[in-house]
Amino acid sequence: MRSRRPPCVNVTMGERIPFPGANPALGLQPVKATYSVAEIAHLFGLSERDVRRWAKTGLIQPIDVDGEELQFDFNALTRFRTVRELRKRGLGLRGIEKQLQGQLPLFEAGGAQILPLRRLTPFEEGLVAHERHEHERAANLFRQAIDDGDHIADALTNLSLIAADAGDDVAALDLVTLALSEEPRHVEGQYNLACLYFKLEDLLLAKLHFELCAAIEPGFTNVYYNLGLVYAALGELGNALRALETYREQAGEDDGDGADELIAMLRAVQATAGPERL
Q1: What backbone torsions phi and psi does residue 225 show, to the nearest 5 degrees?
Q2: Max CA-CA distance within the chain?
Q3: pLDDT digit string (tens) for 160-195?
Q4: 61 falls in which pLDDT band (50, 70, 90)?
Q5: What domains does the chain contain, in order, with CATH numbers?
Q6: Burial class (CB within 10 angstroms; exposed 0-12, middle 13-18, buried 19+) of 128
C-alpha cells in the first residue's frame, strides 16, 4: 500500500522536507497459504538457520523437506505463533524447542510428517484463492469460514485486504478492527490497521498501531521501516533514526526499500535541526 503523497520530515513548524524516492509504506500483510523460510524469519524475527533446523528435525513441519525451496503451510504458521508467545513468556531457544517437542503427538522428530490427504476447509480454500488473486471467490470463502467459526481473525484480516485492494478504505478499516476485536494481539491485523491509518494520513493512530505491532512481535522487520517514516513525518527525528536503523539491522543486506538513503537524509536534517530534535 502506498500513501497519496511521499512522506515528509517535519523540521520546523511549516517546513517539510520530502523523502526522495521512498516507498511510503511497505505493503499490507496478508495471512497466506504458504510461506518461505525467509518470510517466516522476516515475520517472526527468527534466524533462517533456526527455521531450517526446526524443519529438518521435525519440530515444525514444512510442506516438503527435500524440495529446493522449503515452504511452510498455514498450519505451520500457527506453530510459529506459538513460538512468538513462548518468547513473550521469556523462554530462550532451548526452552522453546523443548515446548515444541512436547507438542508433537503425530510424529517423531527427524522426518517429515505424513498425513492423509483431506479436503481443504473454506478458510484454507480462501487462502489459496486469495493468493491467486481470485478476490470474489476468496471473499465468499472467508465469509463462510467466519460463519463456521474457523480462523475468524485471519479471515477478517484478509477480507480487509480485499476491501482495501478494491479502494474501499472504510470497509477495510471496519473489517480489520473486527479482526482485532476477535484477537487483539493479531500481528497482521495491527500492522494492516496502522498501514491504513498511514495511508489516510492519520499519523498519530498509525504510530500507535505500529508501536503496538512492534510490542507484540519485536522481530517483525517491516514495522520498523514504517515506524521510521511515521516518526519522521511527526518530527521525531531521533525515534525515526532508531527505527530505521533497527530495520536495516534486521533486514540485513536487503536494502531494496532505500533505508540507507533515508537514514543518511535524516542524519543530515538532524544535524541542521539542533540538539532538541535528537
Answers
A1: -60, -50
A2: 65
A3: 999 999 999 999 999 999 999 999 999 999 999 999
A4: confident
A5: 8-28+187-277 (1.25.40.10), 34-101 (1.10.1660.10)
A6: middle
